[in-house]
Amino acid sequence: MKTLLKGGYVVSGGGTTQADVLLEGEKIAAVGPELPAADAQTVDCGGKLLFPGFIDAHTHFDLEVAGTITADDFATGTRAALRGGTTMVIDFAAPDKGETLARGLARWREKAEGRAACDYGFHMTIDDWNPGISREIGDMLDQGIPTFKMYMTYPAMMLPEEDMYRALKRLKEAGGLAGVHCENNGITSALAGEAKAAGRLSPASHPRTRPAPAEAAAVGHLLRMAQVADVPVIIVHLSARESLEEVRSARRRGQTVYVETCPHYLLLEDSVYDNPDFLEAAKYVCAPPLRKREDCEALWEALKNGEIQTVATDHCSFTLAQKRAGQYDFTKIPGGLPGVEHRAVLLYTCGVAAGRISAEDMCGVLSENPAKLYGCWPQKGVIAPGSDADIVVFDPAAEGRITAEDQSQNVDYTPYEGIQTRGAVERVYLRGVLAAEDGRMFRTTGRFVHRKLV
Ligand code: MN
Q: What is the Cα–Cα distance from 262 to 280, expressed in whole angstroms?
């Protein structure tokens, strides 16, 4: 089957050019002016931007958190992703303590296989360290899992510092790369204890017990460990201006540091936690928490100047009923926000249309950089001959509004309710197959992507 996308503007991280794009089977066959259209189905893309399919390198589908399971599984989450232009997600395989990485990976592959509508990969969570896990790191790379996740908070997940250092060294030796959740657990635990003892149990305590300096402390600490181990690291979901300062210091020392942020840290502010209506506040609970306007501005600035490489969602959805578990204790609110469906339109609306970043910057942080950083370039992340025919036809002139009623993700609210949007995802192709058009979905089958760092 051949499809010719005619007359659109092909966007890459480095520039935009008007060109036709010929899709043949699962691949892009040709990109260039006035391509011959014989035996291809022609789609007029005049005035449209053509982006390489977006990659969301931070999602949590079908994950058990605090005795409940995320509202989105791989079926609903990946459909929502596609509807918003995301053709590949990288989720987190999370073995139980004591379980082998192999068993954890097998469980996650079972959750996704036959259910995922878009392509997918996994990062492997390291929440335990022993000789067996150390030996398994190489097996993970062989199986297309070159990236790993570690936590500096959450007692059930975090590694002792000595083990974290050992893990960083082992990843260096094996050629893997770690993304780390940075919040200083000592500070956050002590503050939560103080809040509880004082009877301050509402969601208003959430941001106050996880302040920006606690994140910056962990970022600084991690980066010093990485300096000693002599390894690059990824700071996932960086939210605070102070944390960027730690990153800058490390880069000035000559270290390689990659930074991811999320739409909610760019767009939303911590004043939402002060809403006296429990659910109105609880629905924004995530870690790290939302920050202040000046943090949002610092993140936009860092996106613009290339200090932040990727924007992912950390999609981890819970319904309002699930959020209610923390009605009498903010520490029991399941943490996480939905967002996998709206990332691109939000970045276009509040970034490109608002003049903060360019369409090329958007392509960089949503497609090109994650493909390169996470080891699936040039199969993904670029519109070029030989690459997977994952294409987003984006209408920059469309306008709309985000509402929970209109969304496909399996949750009864969106943190972006009512936002007036500029631009819209018009058509999405997954390996040459039309997956979505004007919000309508067609059946597609996602495939595991074997990643390898270069
Ligand atoms: Mn996460």
A: 20
Q: Which domains does the chain have, with CATH numbers?
A: 2-51+380-409+420-439 (2.30.40.10), 53-373 (3.20.20.140)
> What distance in angstroms lies between residue 69's CA and the mean position of ligand 1's atoms?
14
Cβ 144 vs Cβ 449: under 8 Å? yes
- Predicted pLDDT of residue 38: 87
What per-residue string of b and e applies to 324-342 under the rule 16 or more CB within 10 Å gives b? bbbeeebbebbbbbbbbbb
181 CA distance to ligand 1 middle (Å): 8
**C-alpha of residue 59 to centroid of ligand 1, in Å:** 7
Give the Å distance between the CA of 65 and the centre of ligand 1: 11
Task: Express each pLDDT in 40-65 by its tens digit.
Answer: 999 999 999 999 999 999 999 999 98
Q: What is the mean pLDDT of residues 156-173?
A: 96
Phi, psi dihedrals of residue 348, rounded to the nearest 5°: -70, -50
How many Å lie between the centroid of ligand 1 and the Cα of residue 419?
24
Ligand 1 mean position, distance from CA 209 (Å): 19
- Burial of 15: CB neighbours in 10 Å, binned 0-12, 13-18, 19+: exposed
* Cα(52) to centroid(ligand 1), Å: 24
Evaluate if residue 206 carries a pLDDT over 90: yes
Share of the chain above pLDDT 70, in %: 100
68 C-alpha to ligand 1 centroid (Å): 16
Residue 37 has pLDDT above 90, yes or no: no
How many whole angstroms from 20 Cα to the centroid of ligand 1? 38
pTM over 0.85: yes
Q: What is the mean pLDDT of residues 177-203?
A: 98
